[in-house]
Amino acid sequence: MLSIAVWAVCAALVAQAVAVAGWDGVLLAPIPLLICVLVWATLWRPRVILRPDAVRVRNVFSTADVPMAQIADVRLGAMLRLRLHDGRVLTAWNAPGVGKDDHRDRLARMQAQERSARGGSRAAGRGRAQGAGRSTWSDRLVADQLASPSYAVVEAWQAWRAQHGESAAASAAAPDVTRAPNTLVLLVLAAAGVLAALRVVL
User: Is residue 60 domain-resident?
Assistant: First the structure.
């Protein structure tokens, strides 16, 4: 993973500085430490946790507990987004979305698939061969969504709605969305930032 690779590089830099300059090399540690903390806070720690009746979205600075009854729609595109009944949209930071690729590469792959399908089924008739195996933009989008790990949130929300019905989702008695700051992350970021600033100034 990218986070582990960055941490390994930072640790190697500090180890090399100590090997060259002795323990004075530790004075260079605050900068790699800040990089490690930023990677931990933005890439490693954010996550989406599924519960039977709620979704916990842990972003960089805050964590939101979203009851299934408060979710009006789950959108999976470049990022995972939860649209609530009150109109708010909650974006899950760093949650796997639909992969992006170059539209020209995608078009070339689609055309190659169509030519292969036509060539493999010419014996069955040219007309049928042209329609066979033809993929569309919407087909590719659906396939990308199904392949994303975040599609588990879509499935869990759809299963909840199927079990409880839309009346439960629209009920005024549904639990509210709660949000709390990630105090630990804020403190660690502040401490690492202060150390790095002192290293630059002093």
Answer: no
pLDDT in tens, 126-152: 444 444 455 566 677 677 778 888 999
Domain ends where: 142, 163, 191? 142
Is 168 inside a domain boundary? Answer: no
29 is in which domain, residue-wise?
A: 1-45+182-202
> Which tokens go with 79?
């990022």
| DSSP, residue by residue, 89-133 | EEEETT---PPP--HHHHHHHHHHHHHHHHHHTGGG-HHHHHHTT
In a domain, 14, yes or no: yes
CA atoms within 13 A on the CB side of 67: 15
- The confidence score (pLDDT) of residue 91 equals 95
Which strands sit side by side in the sheet containing 89-92, from one edge to the other? 71-76, 80-84, 89-92
Torsion, Cα of 14, 19, 23, 27 (10° steps): -30
What domain count does the chain have? Answer: 2
